[in-house]
């Protein structure tokens, strides 16, 4: 006998009891949205997707009817710093990017290990409330991970800086690996070419090759970074020189060319930002190996960066995904808000394309294009549901327009309680 479970009732059933999830619309991210759709789940994996009648006929078991909802893959945040959730509203927009660096350094100096743990836990809860089921989190404190509650699928990237002690690059990388390697998903994040030495980038890349882990870095984020590398001048150049950074890599190169010419930047890499690019950079990108770009639209707005070169980067075939950055330069950890901000700035980006950036493209960036970011047989059952408008509207339009919190989420076939 089939048992129908109403989504407004109790959701404390065992995972194995939830075989079929039905919704008004299912958005699988391949093909068209499915009216009166359903997803069949066995354990942690999706085993079927289609119209409700077809899925029910092909798969036995209980049915969880979500009612007038849109069911879609969980969102994937490709660039975030949960360390700084407690810095929300602490730093107003500054006159320069360098001034912001000074301001965040001052705020970070006030925080204790206990503060950082609270910050990361609070950030997880907030990201989850906006539909994120997978997050790429850069942390400067991998030693704290053991004390963190991890409610969603997490890639922990150890953020690495040796600007004051480049002679310790190898030890810094080895220490991060020692702390991270017990995690299910991890990677390394040389912070940026202006804060991490060439030796540190090389050491991180070597670990990546040996242990098959992804890499990420910030690059070409600000005008001052461009000034520093290309012109050997500007506020960032002066600041870093004043704290003892060797500046012999500055003058003549752009930030991106400095990185690509020194290191093998390939599909292992997620490059965050890429806001400041020259014509020579685009020439370089046209011949560069494939990598991934994490764009953070609202952080971009906060800093007033040069307009993101969305059309040209897309035309080059680069995989562009979305991130929230940190609450030191953003107001929330909502990828839905990032989608709306990108469309506000780039109206040519279709709703479907922007949702893809926060699902399938993010999965590709972390090397999980075959298991995350879509609703497809064999994929992890990472799903979220949002209300379906009463009036007829395109499902992708409705997703991008939704500005509430997500009330239903499943990760690895398990329904999670949301606060």
List the helices and strands and how they pair.
Layout: E1 4-6, E2 18-26, E3 34-42, E4 45-51, H1 52-58, E5 62-65, E6 69-73, E7 75-80, H2 97-108, H3 113-129, E8 132-139, E9 153-160, H4 169-180, E10 186-190, H5 198-211, E11 215-219, H6 223-231, H7 235-242, H8 255-262, E12 269-273, H9 279-287, E13 292-295, H10 297-303, H11 310-315, E14 319-322, H12 335-345, H13 351-357, H14 360-365, E15 383-387, H15 395-401, E16 408-411, E17 414-415
Parallel strand pairs: 1-5, 2-5, 2-6, 7-8, 8-9, 9-10, 11-12, 12-13, 13-14
Antiparallel strand pairs: 2-3, 3-4, 6-15, 15-16, 16-17
Helix pairs in contact: 4-5, 6-7, 13-15
Rg from alpha-carbon coordinates: 22 Å
**Which topology of the largest domain does CATH recognise?**
TIM Barrel
Termini, distance in Å?
A: 33 Å
Low-confidence stretches: 1-16
Number of helices: 15
Task: Summarize the biggest pleated sheet.
Answer: 9 strands, mixed
**Overall shape:** globular
Total of domains: 2
Structural class: alpha/beta
Architecture per CATH nomenclature, i.e. the level-2 architecture of the largest domain: Alpha-Beta Barrel
The level of helicity is 25-40%
DSSP summary, beta strand count:
17
């Amino acid at each position: 006998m089939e048992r129908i479970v109403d989504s407004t009732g109790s959701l404390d059933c065992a995972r194995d009891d939830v075989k079929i999830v039905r919704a008004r619309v299912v958005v699988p991210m391949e093909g068209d949205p499915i009216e009166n759709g359903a997803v069949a789940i066995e354990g942690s994996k999706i085993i079927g997707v289609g119209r409700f009648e077809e899925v029910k006929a092909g798969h036995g078991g209980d049915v969880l009817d979500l009612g007038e909802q849109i069911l879609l893959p969980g969102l994937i945040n490709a660039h975030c710093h949960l360390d700084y959730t407690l810095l929300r509203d602490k730093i107003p927009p500054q006159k320069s990017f360098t001034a912001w660096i000074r301001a965040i350094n001052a705020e970070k100096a006030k925080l204790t290990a206990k503060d950082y743990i609270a910050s990361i836990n609070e950030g997880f809860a907030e990201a989850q409330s906006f539909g994120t089921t997978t997050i790429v989190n850069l942390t400067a404190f991998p030693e704290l991970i053991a004390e963190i509650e991890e409610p969603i699928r997490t890639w922990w990237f150890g953020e690495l800086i040796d600007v004051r002690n480049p002679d310790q690059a190898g030890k810094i990388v080895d220490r991060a690996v020692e702390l991270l390697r017990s995690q299910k998903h991890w990677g390394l994040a040389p912070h940026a070419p202006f804060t991490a030495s060439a030796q540190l980038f090389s050491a991180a890349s070597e670990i990546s090759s040996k242990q098959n882990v992804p890499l990420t870095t910030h690059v070409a984020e600000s005008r001052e970074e461009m000034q520093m590398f290309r012109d050997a001048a500007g506020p960032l150049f002066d600041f870093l020189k004043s704290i003892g950074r060797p500046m012999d890599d500055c003058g003549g190169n752009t930030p991106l060319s400095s990185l690509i010419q020194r290191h093998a930047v390939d599909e292992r890499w997620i490059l965050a930002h890429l806001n400041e690019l020259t014509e020579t950079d685009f020439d370089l990108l046209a011949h560069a190996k494939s990598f991934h770009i994490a764009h953070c639209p609202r952080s971009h707005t906060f800093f007033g960066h040069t307009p993101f070169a969305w059309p040209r980067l897309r035309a080059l075939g680069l995989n562009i995904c979305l991130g929230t950055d940190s609450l030191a330069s953003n107001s929330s950890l909502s990828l839905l808000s990032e989608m709306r901000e990108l469309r506000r700035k780039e109206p040519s980006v279709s709703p479907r394309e922007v949702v893809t950036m926060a699902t399938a493209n993010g999965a590709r960036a972390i090397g999980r294009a075959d298991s995350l970011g879509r609703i497809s047989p064999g994929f992890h059952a990472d799903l979220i549901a949002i209300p379906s408008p009463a009036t007829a509207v395109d499902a992708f339009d409705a997703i991008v327009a939704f500005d509430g919190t997500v009330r239903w989420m499943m990760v690895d076939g398990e329904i999670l309680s949301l606060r």
